[in-house]
Amino acid sequence: QTFFPIVQGCVYPDLRLRLNFFDGLFSAYASAGGGQYLNDYSSLKKELHWFNSSFIPESGLGVSADRLDARLGVTGKALSNLQYDVFGGYAIKDDAVLYTVSSPLSFASSSVRPVSGIAYADYRQFYAGTRLSWKSDRLEVDGNFIYRDADLAARDQFKENTAWVGVAPFEADMRAVYNWNHRVYAGLNVTGMGRRAWNGGADKVRGYCIAGLTFEYLLGRKLSLWADLDNIFDQKMTLVPAYIPGGINFTVGICLRLQ
């Protein structure tokens, strides 16, 4: 199918092709898409829990666009319990969000606390990744990995005394949950990110890998108790410049299902 939406004078492709083999056990697909999206407060907060109004630049929150996102991939099932999706592609991004750190004086001044924020830049990237999922009656495992080779093109857009952090070359996450009689659930979560370029130079913002444990006990069909133990190895992680959360944290709660 082909559809060309026109938004504010811009034309974006929407092309999709899928070929199924062996009764749908194996599929090959190709797509080319694009479009605009609004960087509203709620979407940025969902992406980064620590996002707040101080991050917003004087110009306010803007609109970003994927001028093109072309992808090739294969997906299917294997060994009865395994589902996979392996893909690669090329993307052209306009006014994409990057996290920055700025100082009203200079970065050489240790007496001035840097301030985190966001800015917009254009770049192109090649990417490749995979999604894996294993599901059985007792065990569920999901994993995602993506590699990016991004060329940041708009480095001169940033203000003086403002440094930016580039796109992570790779990100990965894994979740595993085991259940006893569908009443007691115990899980492990692992998330990692590679080193990111600092101001496009040789200096890097260090990567991180954090792990957490989850537990849930079903008291009935609609009520359960749960607990999360996050960052169990007490790792320091730089999600955004000038903000490095760390430390083991623990959360407990009660879940009530209304349906």
Structure explained in plain terms:
The protein is mostly beta strands. It is 3% helix and 58% strand. It is built from 1 helix and 16 strands. The protein has one helix at 41-47; strands spanning 6-7, 10-11, 15-21, 26-38, 63-78, 82-102, 115-135, 139-152, 162-164, 170-180, 184-193, 196-197, 204-205, 208-218, 223-230, 249-256. Strands 3, 4, 5, 6, 7, 8, 9, 10, 11, 14, 15 and 16 form a 12-stranded antiparallel β-sheet that branches. Strands 1-2 form a two-stranded antiparallel ribbon. A two-stranded antiparallel sheet has the order 12-13. The longest helix is centred in the first third of the chain and has 7 residues, at 41-47. The two termini are 37 Å apart.
Observed structural traits:
mainly beta, two-stranded antiparallel ribbon, globular, 3% helix, 16 strands, 58% strand
Unreliable stretches (pLDDT < 50, length at least 5) are: 1-7, 105-109
| Beta strand count | 16
Indicate the overall shape: globular
User: Which band does the percent of strand residues land in?
Assistant: over 45%
**Largest sheet geometry:** 12 strands, antiparallel
- Distance between the first and last residues' Cα: 37 Å
Pairing-aware structural class of the strands and helices? Answer: mainly beta
How much helicity do the residues have? under 10%
Instruction: List SSEs in N-to-C order.
Output: EEEEHEEEEEEEEEEEE
Rg is: 22 Å
What is the overall pLDDT average? 84
Number of helices: 1
